[in-house]
């Protein structure tokens, strides 16, 4: 896309240079036209070189025709330049809006990622707490189980002694 912009800018600069050259030629032709008119006026006053006047008039007409063609060409070049400028403007606006959309999307994704990181941290914290609670409950159950086994053993011992004592009696 940047290459397209660069190419269009180069085209625009090239056309601007042509346009400036045409304007300079127009100014030169205008100056020349003024000089020719002055010369023509001098010729009319002196009426010595009538053939020169005809020739100058023809040149003037030719220059006028050239000026007209240059003016038309200049207008055509101006229209092309305006079209190129408009196209560049639209492309730049499109590029800017795409950049803004991407910035917004990146911002949204960053916020979503941040929220997920917070959620993961919260879950990890809860998991760690639950793990500690489970370990404590397991330790308590292990102690209770050991106590239960000890009580069962004592019960069996007492029962055995009772049975033995009953037999003796």
From TrEMBL:
Subcellular location: Cytoplasm
Ranges in a coiled coil: 57-126
Gene Ontology biological process: centriole replication; de novo centriole assembly involved in multi-ciliated epithelial cell differentiation
Top-rank lineage group of the source organism: Eukaryota
GO cellular component, one term: centriole
UniProt keyword terms in alphabetical order: Coiled coil, Cytoplasm
Record flagged with keyword Cytoplasm: yes
Family matches, as PANTHER family: DEUTEROSOME ASSEMBLY PROTEIN 1, SARCOMA ANTIGEN NY-SAR-24/CYTOSKELETAL PROTEIN SOJO
Protein name: DEUP1 protein
Natural source organism: Nyctibius grandis
Organism lineage: Eukaryota, Metazoa, Chordata, Craniata, Vertebrata
Gene: Deup1
């Amino acid at each position: 896309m940047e290459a397209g912009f660069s190419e269009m800018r180069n085209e625009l600069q090239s056309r601007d240079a042509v346009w400036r050259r045409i304007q300079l030629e127009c100014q030169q032709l205008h100056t020349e036209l003024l000089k020719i008119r002055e010369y023509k006026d001098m010729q009319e006053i002196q009426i010595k070189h009538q053939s020169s006047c005809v020739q100058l008039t023809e040149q003037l007409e030719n220059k006028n025709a050239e000026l007209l063609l240059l003016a038309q060409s200049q207008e055509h070049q101006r229209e092309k330049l305006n079209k190129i400028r408009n196209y560049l403007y639209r492309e730049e606006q499109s590029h800017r809006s795409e950049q803004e959309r991407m910035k917004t999307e990146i911002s949204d994704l960053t916020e979503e990622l941040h929220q997920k990181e917070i959620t993961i941290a919260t879950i990890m914290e809860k998991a760690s707490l639950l793990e500690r609670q489970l370990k404590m409950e397991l330790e308590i159950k292990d102690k209770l189980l050991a106590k239960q086994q000890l009580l069962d053993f004592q019960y069996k011992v007492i029962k055995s002694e009772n049975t033995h004592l009953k037999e003796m009696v």
